[in-house]
Design a protein that fits this description.
2 copies of one chain form a homodimer. By secondary structure, chain A is an alpha/beta fold. Chain A is built from 20 helices and 18 strands. In chain A, the strands form 3 sheets. In chain A, strands 9-14-13-15-16-18-17 form a 7-stranded mixed beta sheet, sandwiched between helices. Chain A has a 6-stranded parallel beta sheet with strand order 2-1-3-4-6-5, sandwiched between helices. In chain A, strands 10-8-7-11-12 form a 5-stranded parallel beta sheet. The longest helix of chain A is centred in the first third of the chain and has 17 residues. The radius of gyration of chain A is 24 Å and the shape is globular. The relative contact order of chain A is 0.11. Chains A and B meet through α2, α4, α5, α7 and α16 of A and α2, α4, α5, α7 and α16 of B.
Amino acid sequence: MRGAEALIRTLVASGVDTCFMNPGTSEMHFVASLDAVPEMRGVLCLFEGVATGAADGYARMAGTPASVLLHLGPGLGNGLANLHNARKGAVPVVNIVGDHATTHQQYDSQLQSDIETVARNVSAWISRPASTAAIAPAAAAAVAAAMGLPGQVATLILPADLSWGAGGEPAPPVAATAPRLIDADRVDEVARILCSGEPAALFLGGRTLRERGLRAVARIAAATGVQLLAETFPARLERGGGLPEPTRLAYLAEFAELQLQPLRHLVLVDAKAPVSFFAYPGRASYLVPDTCSVHDLAGAVDDVEAALDALADAIGTGDGSTRGAPAVTARPDRPTGALTAQAVAAALGSLLPEGAIVSDEAQTSGIFNPAATAGSPRHTWLCLTGGAIGQGLPVATGAAIAAPGRRVVSLQADGSAMYTIQALWTQAREGLDVTTVIYNNRSYSILNMELQRVGGEPGGAKAASMLDLHHPDLDFVSLARGMGVPATRAQTAEQFVHQLERSFSEPGPSLIEAIVPPLL
Amino acid sequence: MRGAEALIRTLVASGVDTCFMNPGTSEMHFVASLDAVPEMRGVLCLFEGVATGAADGYARMAGTPASVLLHLGPGLGNGLANLHNARKGAVPVVNIVGDHATTHQQYDSQLQSDIETVARNVSAWISRPASTAAIAPAAAAAVAAAMGLPGQVATLILPADLSWGAGGEPAPPVAATAPRLIDADRVDEVARILCSGEPAALFLGGRTLRERGLRAVARIAAATGVQLLAETFPARLERGGGLPEPTRLAYLAEFAELQLQPLRHLVLVDAKAPVSFFAYPGRASYLVPDTCSVHDLAGAVDDVEAALDALADAIGTGDGSTRGAPAVTARPDRPTGALTAQAVAAALGSLLPEGAIVSDEAQTSGIFNPAATAGSPRHTWLCLTGGAIGQGLPVATGAAIAAPGRRVVSLQADGSAMYTIQALWTQAREGLDVTTVIYNNRSYSILNMELQRVGGEPGGAKAASMLDLHHPDLDFVSLARGMGVPATRAQTAEQFVHQLERSFSEPGPSLIEAIVPPLL
C-alpha cells in the first residue's frame, strides 16, 4: 500500500476523518488515495488560511482534530496565522505539509524551503518520517500529540516520494496523554482562600467554560460569593439557556484593570494571569494589581473539570440553585429604525436559534452582542483566540462541518473578513448552514481607536487613510455572490431582522451585509 | 524624534519611498509618522500577501526596493509566500515587521510569536534593533542588504516601544556591495568553449534578461551559433520590439530534457543548472544530460552584464545584425469565434501596447502567450519566480505603482487568483492602469495534469473533486465589482478583443473574465 493511503487509513483509525485541503503536486498521491478510503472526507479550500482556520473550528466543536493538507513551505506560510490562533486556543490540529521528494530537496528548486523552521512557531510537535513505512506510525503519533493536553498543532511533513512509495501499512491509534489529576491539598488550599471572605475571583479559561465546568463554578460562587471571570477570548464558551455565565475580562486594559482592582485573590483555572493584548506607552502590560495574590488551581495539562468539581465539593456547596444563581435574562425586542451595532445585537438576541454556534470576529462592532444574547437559548460562542485576524469565516466553516444540524452564525468585521473571504466558497460548495453577518463600517475601526490609545500624534490625512476602507467601498453582497453564496444588504433594523429570520429558516449559507456606522 | 519617524526618513534618504502595508496596533506609530514625511507613499493592502507581492513587483520595475509593513508574526506568515517568491527571484524587499514592545514580550500575550524564526526562511538578513537610536542605522543597513547582490529580503523587526520612543535620528544611506567583476581568464575559457563548434548554449537568468544582456548574447549567438536558453520563470524579461529573445526552458521536465539533450556545453549566466520543478516517480530531477558539461560564466553576485559584454568582445563579434539575428515576428490577427486559451493569446499578441508590463500567472492556459506576443512592441514580462501561487495580482499592483504610464496586463489563472484576490481593491483605490485577465476554466487544471504525471491511480470521484472549481462556479465579475474594479465577462473571441481594447484605452483598473475550456 502506498504511504499516502496508509496515512489516510491511520488517520481514520485514530478518529480523524476530515481533511481540509489545498493540495499541490507534491500532495497528489494523498489526493489520489482519497477514493480508496471512503471514511475520509476531503474538503477543498481555495486558500490555506481557510483550511487551517476550518480545522480549528472543526476541532472546537467535534472534540477530535481534523487534518489539514498543505503544499510545501509557502502553503504552510499561508496557513500560519490560523495555526497561530489554534495554538493560542490550545485546539488540536493534525497539520500535514507535503514536501518535495527526498531525492529532490538537494537541488533547491523553486518551491524548496525549510518547512521545519516555518512550522516551529506554531507546532509543539513536528515529525518528518524517514521512510514510507514510518509514515503511518508518525500519523498515529501526530493525532496523539495533537490531542494531548494542552491541545496543539502537530505537524507531519510528508515527502512526496515516501507518500507515493509502496510498503505502507496502517498503524493502530496511539493514546493521548491523560489529563493530570491535581492533588487534594491544592484543592483544599484554594477552598480555604475562597472561603476566607476576602474579595476573590476564579479566572476561567480553556476547558472550564463548557457545561460541566460552568455548573461547578456556579456552585462555588453560590456558596462563597466569589466572582467568576473568564478569559477575554475563549476558544469555546457555552452560553444561554440558563447556564451560569462568567464575566469576560475586558479587551481594553483600562477596563480590565477596573475589573481586577477590587480583588485580593485571583485563582487561575486553565488560564494565565491576565496581561494586556498590546503594550501602550506608560501602561503596565501585567494587569493584576499588586494587592492581589494569584493562585493556580489547575492548568492546561490538568483535569480542570475534575478539579472544579473537587473544589465545589470541598467547599461543600449545595446545588447552586439559590445564592448567586444567574438571573434569567430577558431576550431583547426586535429592533426598529436605524441599523447600528446595537440594533444588530438586539436582532441577534431576539432571534438566535437553539443550538446556534457563533463564530465571533466582529471586533469593535460586536461589543454589544454578549449582553444581548445572554438570554438566548443554549448556544456556543467561539472567539478569536490568538488575535490573528481572518479566523472567523474559516472557523465558522469548520464548525458547520463538525456540527451538522446546528445553525452557525459568523459575525464578521469588514476589515478582518477580507483576510480569508475565500471561506465563503467552501461554505457554498459544502452547503453549510452558515449565516454570515458582515459589519460594514468601512474602516479598520479598531485601529482608529488603537491609534489614539498608543499616544500617536493626532493622525494626519495619510495616517487616517491607512485605516480607512472607503474608496472604493467594499461590496460584500457582490463578493459573496461571486463565490456562490446568496447575499443581501441591510440598511435598516427592520431589513436586518427580516433578512436574519430568512437566513435562519433556509438551509445552506447566506450573507447579510449590515451597513453600520463606526462606533469610534 | 520618534524611532518610527527616523525610520521613515532613513528609508526615504536611502531611496525607498513606497511602503505597502497592512498595519496593526504595534505599527501605529509608523502609520502616525507618515504625515511627517511627505516623500513616503503608503499603500494600504487588505491582506499581507498583497503587500509583499506588490513590493516584489515594485522592485522588479523600479530597480529599488519598496518597503512593506507587517503586523507581528501572523502578519509575516500571511506575507510569507510572496516573500518566498521574491527570495527565489532575487528581488530586493525591505520587510518591516512590527513586534510587541520589548517590555511586553515576556508575557506571551495572544499575538506573541517568534518572528525571527518565521522570517529566517525568506530573509538573508534579519535585524532587531535594541534601542530607538539603533532603528535608523538598521534601516539603512536593511536597504543595503536588500539591494546587494543577489537581491534579497531584508527583515527589520521593530518593537513597538522603540518605534514610539524618542531619540531617533535619521541615518545616512549605506552603500550596497558592488557587483563582483569576473576575471578575464574565465571569460576566455568560456569564449574558447563557445567557439569550439561543439553544440553549446548559454543558460540565462536573473539580470541577463534585460536589454543590455540580451544585446550582448545576441552578438555572441550571431558569431558562434550557440543557443540562447533562458530560465523557465524569470523575474523580469524584456521582450518585443525586435529585441533578441532566448528560448525559455520548458516547465515540463520531459520537454526541458528534449531541449537540453543535444548540448555538449551549458554555460550558466546568473542561473543555476536546470532541475525539474517537482520530482516524479522514476524520473531524474537534474535535467542536464551526462553528455553535457556545465560551466559558470558569472553568478548571482557578479557583474553579469559586464561579463556578457566582455564575452562578446572576446569572441570578437560584430554588431549582431547578421547571422542569428532574430527574425521579425508578425503580430497575430485578431481572433474570432470560440474563446480559447489560443484566442486569448492571439488577442494579446495583436493588441499588447508599447511599454506594457505583463504579470504572468496564467499557468496552463497561458502557454500560448509567449509565442503570440513575440512580435509585439517592446514590453516587460514578469514571471512566477518561486512557484508559490498568488503572486500575479500583487506583482501587477506593485509594478503599476513603480511604472506609472505603462499599461500592466495581469494574466491570471482562476485557481491562483483566489489566493490574493484582495489586490484588486488596492488597484481600484490607487487608480492603477491594470488590465486583469482571468482564465476561468473552473479547475485547478495544472493539478489534473500533475495528478497524471505523478503516476497516481486514475483519480476517482473524490480526487477529481479536489481539483475541480465548479459547484459553485467562481464569478470573477462579481468579485471584482465587490472591490470596486469594473469587470466584464467574455465568452467569444470577439467579445474578448473588444473588452481588451476598451480596457487598454481607459485609465484605471478593469478585469475581464475569459471563460475558456480547460486545455487538459
